[in-house]
Records
---
Amino acid sequence: MDGWVVGIDLGGTKTALGLISPDNRVVAHRRMPTNADEGPSSVVERIAHLVADLEAEVPGGERVAALGICCPGPVNHETGTLLKLVNLPGLSNTPLRQLLAERLNLPVRLEHDAKAAALGDFYFGAGRGHRSMVYVVIGTGVGAAIILNGRLYYGETNASGEVGHVSVDPDGELCHCGTPGCLETFTSGPSLVRRYRRALQEAGAPIDEPTITGEQITHLAAQGDPIAARLMEQSGRALGIAIASMAMILNIELYVIGGSVAKAGDLLLEPARQTVPKYCFKATAQHVQIKASELGDDGPILGCGWLARHAS
């Protein structure tokens, strides 16, 4: 499908919309608080108003042809239904695709946010020219999307990509999922904050910032904060162990890292690159590439745009 489409990244606190041109550029943005507790009707109505606002910017009297929308999982991409959402309980069990399609009289595709971001980078970012790719998103949680020979891999029960809950240290901290030493306990934003505060307490140092975030810790590491730098190196090593395991199992060469914590760049990625050869065959490791996402916050929006172009 050619023409203008809208990509929508529906998040736990805010929702971002992007108007995407026929040559796949995000040319205009809109944002709104998600306010999922107001219920599906309110969310759909506010999205519809912003879509109309974006459509007013389409030149030459053309119209938006389709929508793509993504959100934190779990979702059923086949039926277009949101399932039981921890971060968006007010939208749990909502047939969101149907509601949006009926309200706007447009084709709509719905996908998990990590998978949408993966599609964005695969077609328009760091994955261009590759046949396969793993996209790892590191933020409040850690997840992954697997693209094999140009197609998303969902698994038998639509649950593939839970790399955040792969144990990289069997003697490590207990994850909220019940498994010790999950990758998420090393790399997620909340885990970084918890470990940073613990390290400050052990060092007898004051905690000056009561609302510090994982992204702020990455900035501190870049500025030379020794505790933050050590945590980022540990996180990078844990990520490298997980990538080495995936490389051995999947024999995929490209691993693209996105999400808020991944904005740390080489502070996180270089320790991962150095760790991979220690945990898999040298012949496998020499082909592994670990890159940062090239699209930033527009990744999920562009992925949703790609989905919109393939909406029926």
Note: The mean pLDDT is 93.
---
Amino acid sequence: MIEYRHFVNTDPPHILRLWHECQLGRGAATGLRCDEFDELVFAQTYFDPAGLILAIADSKIVGFVHAGFGANEDRSWLSDEQGVICAIMVHPSMRNQGIGRELMRRGEAYLRERGSKTIYAGPAEPRDPFYSGIYGGSQSAGFLHSDPAAEPFLTKLGYEATEEHIVFQRGLGVGSADPVGVRLVNVRRTTRLTVLNQEPKSLWWQTRYGRLDAMHLALIPRTGGAPLARVSVVGLDRYVDAWQTRGIGLMSLYVTEANRKKGYGQALLVEVCRRVRDDMVQLAEAHASKADAGAIAVLESAGFRAIDSGRVYRRHDA
């Protein structure tokens, strides 16, 4: 008989064991220590034990659902109106017994009781309170296609995809070549890469990417002046075991409006890849919304190629 209960403080090692046994695909970090998992999930300031519901069989955790909330408008706290199923998993040996369906029902009930008017499945900005840095890669991107059990399960429950994010990667190891071109050469001649001072970030950013090894880089004119383009870089060391290589994530790429379509975004990405290659980083990853043709074009121009994608789902009746 399956029993269901909320999280208690002795659960983390057993939840981590289940995480590894569920084989979540290339986008899930493996070989995690309990303290790493704890830092990015249970130690979050807004973690609510009532939102993490466990399935128990013979005194062993065989599944769980983790429900949470998106950020409010100024990213200073949660918005209870936007509920999200951040994780749902059942041990492979216990699937097709209705456990996942019951966990989802209980997770959805928790969100509705807290006031959620819309329920999503799959964490992605700005509805990604947990698992940044250990699922999705450089950013949360919903549930990944490389996580094979997710989409069929959610579709059967009446969820439909509402947004899609493409995962891009670029190898930086021996033999990798940087893009070339006249415009790229000209941009390099007139700009330089610099580290930006840490700007005050919202609580939402601090609770997720602030817990990772992050820095902010920009292209500025060699003659001085304001940044022409900037990007944030996060360490992906927790994926070394899964990917067998050291990687970094690139996120929040921004080119000032007056300088768009002039090659600055491409040049910034290429220069960052050159910089981290010197630090023995062999892989760079970045995400882009499938609807953002401009971001996709910039990533491809900098040598990135699509290797996966993720979807955020929403219930038909929610």
Note: The mean pLDDT is 95.
---
Amino acid sequence: MESTRQKKVGRLVQKELAEIFRIETRNMFRGNMITPTVVRMSPDLMLAKVYLSIFPSEKQDEVIETVNSTSGEIRYYLGKKIGKQVKSIPELAFFIDDSLDYAERIDNLLNS
């Protein structure tokens, strides 16, 4: 169970990462829309597990590779935005959020 502090910092990180993916890193991920859907913080607030929804979904694997390889730069941008609000900037671990694909697959099975 996440504490209130973990939830607050998670929401802050999610909001700022959405802005970073929209503006700062636009040229890194040409033609791909990346949205952080869930951020789970470790109890010590030093690790953020970020689940990303990537559109178009055909390029998910190569985009998540690119995101992971540039996580240091993304963390730098995050630090510039939330550095005054948190004690330390968390390490970022990115994962693919495939819950929408899973829901679509279930819906197709039910409609068949």
Note: Helices lie at 4-24, 60-69, 71-82, 99-111.
